[in-house]
Amino acid sequence: SGTGTLVMSGLLMAVPGGAGVAVSVTGSTELMGGVMRDSAPADLRKLNREKLSAMGISQDVADIFIANGIYTPLEQTLLVAALDNMKNTANRSEFIKFATLTDNPDVAFFRQRQAQMYAAYNKSVQPIDSFISIGDISTAKTKDGKIIFNVPLDHLVWTKNMAAAASIITQNVALMEGVTGKELWNTGSVSDLAKESLGKMGWTVHEQAETKLSLPTY
Predict the structure, then answer these.
(1) CA 188 to CA 125: how far, in whole Å?
(2) 152: pLDDT strictly greater than 60
């Protein structure tokens, strides 16, 4: 929908130079020992389907996600492994539905890193109770009512698109009941204007999330 497109364009245009430099490339891509080296793509697809099924994700949704050739087998496997790590989090299907919409290689990597950030937050900060959808955007909610939005950007600046994206998410969150706070976690830095503007919207901003969240290794 328009909301999802606007939010994503806002995030990917938050860094001068566009999407290619926007997404943090730091962090572990080591995966379950040598599984990636030793497994054919078809075997990885089978493994990922089994994990998605065990999460309660419908076969139709799983098939659409697995069939999305924008993702590399590594990206899909890391994304699924991150969600598989979140055993007590409800509605993981919301993140997968959100991920199936990806039609851009930069966004595919962005989604993989987001999934890893949510798994790390769940493990290192506090448990994530559930994924929730805001338009086409997937965010998370803790049991005590905090909305968590994880962003894997090297540097987030306050562009017109970013302002519009933040405004849409903030307005939608304002309509929800039982919200006790809003947190944005970014793997890299956040400009002073972005921090000030997000703060005025009620967001607590965490920079350098990579160092604060111990990203899970598989």
Answers:
(1) 18
(2) yes
CA-closest candidate to residue 97, choices 157, 50, 56: 56
DSSP states along 97-164: HHHHT--SHHHHHHHHHHHHHHHHHHHHT--EEEEEEETTEEEEEETTSEEEEEE-BSEE---HHHHH
Number of alpha carbons in the 13 Å side-chain half-sphere of residue 18? 4
pLDDT tens digits for 38-86? 678 888 999 999 999 999 999 999 999 999 999 999 999 999 999 999 9
43 contacts: CB under 8 Å, gap ≥ 6: none
Amino acid at 72: T
CA–CA dist 41, 43 (Å, integer): 5
